[in-house]
Amino acid sequence: MKHEPVHQGRLKSPFHSRLESLDTVNEWHQWKGYSSADQLYCSDTEYFAIRNATGVFDLTPMTKYRITGPDALDYLNRLVTRDMAKVRPGRVAYAVWCDDNGQVIDDGTIFHLREGEYRLCSQERHFAWLKAATLGFDVTITHETEDVAALAVQGPTSYSVLSKMNLEGLEELKPFGLMHFDFEGSELMISRTGFTGDLGYELWIDPDKAEALWDALFEAGELHGIRAIGTTALNMARIEAGYLAAYEEFLPADETIRTGVSRSPLELGLDWLVDFKKPNFNGRRALAEEKRNGSAWRLVKLDIEGNKEAHHSYIFSNAKARGGQIGFVTSAVWSPVCKQNIALGTVNTPHGKPGDTVWVEIYYQREMHWNRKMAKATVVDKPFWFPPRRGATPPGPY
Amino acid sequence: MKTYDAIVVGAGHNGLTNAAFLAKAGLDVVCVEKNDYIGGATVSRNLYKDWWYSNCSYVCSLLRPEIYRELELHKHGLQVTPYGGSVQFMENGDYYGSYHDEEVAYREMARFSRHDADAYKRYSADTMRQCKFIRDFLLSTAPDPTSFKPKDLMEFARIGSKFTGMGEERMHETIRFWTMSVAEYLDEYFETDVIKAAFSGSGIIGTALGIHSPGTAYVLLHHYMGDVDGNVGSWGFARGGTGAVSSAIAGAYQAAGGELRTESGVEQIIVKNGNVTGVALENGDEIHGHIVVSAMDVKRTFLTCMDKNDLPEKFHKRVENFKIRGSSGKVNIALDGLPTFPALPEGSSLIHSDMHFIDSMERMERAYDDWKSGTWSQDPYIDMVIPTLNDPTMAPPGKHFMSCFVQYCPHQIDGRRWTQEEKEAFGETVINQIANYSPDFRDLILHAEIRTPQDIEDEIGITEGNIFHGELTMDQLLFNRPIPGYAQYRGPINGLYMCGSSNHPGGGIMAAPGANAAREILSDLRRPNTVPENWGDD
What we know:
The structure holds 2 protein chains of 2 kinds.
Chain A: H1 16-22, E1 27-31, E2 34-39, H2 43-52, E3 54-58, E4 63-68, H3 72-79, E5 92-98, E6 104-114, E7 117-122, H4 127-132, E8 140-143, E9 149-154, H5 158-163, E10 178-183, E11 186-191, E12 200-205, H6 210-221, E13 226-228, H7 231-240, H8 284-293, E14 297-304, E15 314-316, E16 327-335, E17 340-348, E18 357-366, E19 369-380
Parallel strand pairs in A: 3-13
Antiparallel strand pairs in A: 1-2, 3-9, 4-7, 4-8, 5-6, 6-7, 9-12, 10-11, 11-12, 14-17, 14-19, 15-16, 15-18, 16-17, 18-19
Helix pairs in contact in A: 2-7
Chain B: E1 3-9, H1 13-24, E2 29-32, E3 45-48, E4 51-53, H2 65-70, E5 80-83, E6 86-89, E7 95-98, H3 102-112, H4 114-135, H5 150-164, H6 168-177, H7 182-187, H8 193-200, H9 216-224, E8 227-228, E9 231-232, E10 235-238, H10 243-255, E11 259-261, E12 266-272, E13 275-281, E14 286-294, H11 298-304, H12 313-321, E15 328-335, E16 354-356, H13 361-372, E17 381-385, E18 400-407, H14 420-435, H15 441-444, E19 445-451, H16 453-460, E20 496-498, H17 512-524
Parallel strand pairs in B: 1-2, 1-14, 2-11, 6-16, 14-20
Antiparallel strand pairs in B: 3-4, 5-10, 6-7, 8-9, 12-13, 13-14, 15-18, 15-19, 17-18
Helix pairs in contact in B: 1-10, 1-17, 3-4
């Protein structure tokens, strides 16, 4: 019995042919084994497609698991920190799951597709962990990353685009809701979710129908400024929305080598996702103790003075850097839509309370020469970008 | 007659390293070697026409980069090139390959088990954590737990703070890790037999233990804790074969003014009035020295090359009982061309990798059973590489050198010396196993060198041909290595030192025992230290 070798290079997503035909710059990176575009024409233009019209992002490489069986709800409630009983069929929940020490393994979205049937979507791959957690539950977990093609359709005109696709009832879909439609005989699932903090949807379909869906979508969007986008533009939008990214704002705890480099949900500003009223969930005991004794770290959103992006900067409590650094920036960007110099960072408590002033040490290069600036930054509470259209139901035509 | 500052016995890589650091400190050093070539088991031999054989040690990862740099080994001809991957041929015609590319490696593992593919990251992180812990202590002397000297106390404090810094759960895991078996360790992560078999090999190479024997998880670590250019766990080939390592160290030693004498086997280390005064050579010559540093294994040093009356009774007994069992053989082959492996896809990168022909944990353990019964494994674990795919200097163009490391192979057969027929049958077992997966292999063989542990002992001098100079079990590691109370490179006689792999941190081409011993010697002699400090990972 001769075996074909496993594919040696980067995989192509079911949308690859369409991305490739639009691509003008040939800038790709590897995302979970797939070729994924950094940008297709110009990341700035693509960014403004998200904020000004509609940007379409191929999120097929996102890890997906199907969770079914009589105990699916109990299982998930044991797995994640929030109360999944409150997430009814047709709803989507952002969630984190922890190890026994209350350290975040990953975050992701859980789609309650139908009664007792869930899809869990995450950045990282966790089959071994999810399987181990099934102990004592009648539940089946299926890895389905390759079986579902997915697109994010994000931006103010995204509803206008989709409304042309004969999707009855879509106008009633609220944020974090999902609906099933028929698309050329296949089931098209649409959720009102995304990674941009704007009005937007995610479309989930059989890979065989991926190209047809793309074509229909781009035809519908032709007059609404629809554009394919790459990761660079998406990442700008996600920082503006204050969303976390694995390997940026936290590391999957089970992959850390050093102690003290992982984070708990409380340290990531996700207290609202931890429901201590639940009798048991992974990490509950450790998190309850942390809640009593206080956390070591705090995730901060920083509004930084000036216009020099604060990539990888140390954070200090004062302009003179006395007392040493209190943390560091994890993601930074100049926000074109807010005209603001923004960043996410992690600082030692008690620093970093909303309203606090901190200082970031910025190194920036001008014509080969490096310069240093200590910039004042204010810790803010709310996402940098949170437009009313994000929640409007039915959404306007924009 | 001249009296040297130091006589180093044995020009293997540790002896040479030790001698080089002593010479760099300005000592008048002579390094004596019994063979007419240097390197000991770190050697390239021209045994057939234009072929150079790495006929003992064959890959390189553990060599401390601090030593590499300090001795400027690149200026003395050393170049280590990393290679990647491994393959496990399976009885059902399939194979399990491990690839350098993380995603391709993932896909291949997922072909057998999605669970295992996803578990690999946790396995990798947990193993790397143990590596990180031990790596910090390779280039330092193990502290004596009974000592109240500030140096020992400080080193213990350093280990203690690294250890407690791991946090409670990881401290528990670490304690458990150091004594558990590689099979139990792998069971915590993986469910697929062939994947476990693939990883378990590193737990038994060079060891007279089976995959289910306690302590083999550490042996796995011993094979993971090295690095090539900072990539921990990665292995490489020395250009020109493994002998390039020892000849480069010898180059650095001679550049520092050191003297090298081959064909000068030591008959006895001479002791007068409780002090070492020199060595008597097998050829009848005597060399006088203020100190003698033995790079030989601990048994050969004290049981063969010393008078029992010069040694403390209990120490002598401990040396007698030191575990140093022959468990590995080698078959080195000159090939007329590159053999094909039909199970592999055409053009597969796996031809460049480590090849193995055992696909289950059961077969791994059965291989050990044969050894326990006093004979070689009928179905052995072979670690096979073809370095000439990477190195153009070891064989003529289009021709190849193949190195087969074979586990298990006993020092003696049923307690007596090997016969020529048995040795040939052992070679045949190895060739057969490979030929099962490569139909043209046998016809390509031009010359084969078959080496049992007995041969390695006879030629190189290592007791029982044990590649690590003694088992890497907890009772013989760190401050227990080689013998409690003598783990700081000082022998039981004034002026007698030990710098071979029987000492902390153990075997493999690491050069750390040689360097650590040099640091202790220079400290005793109140000379400036020439041995570099551990760079550290953090």
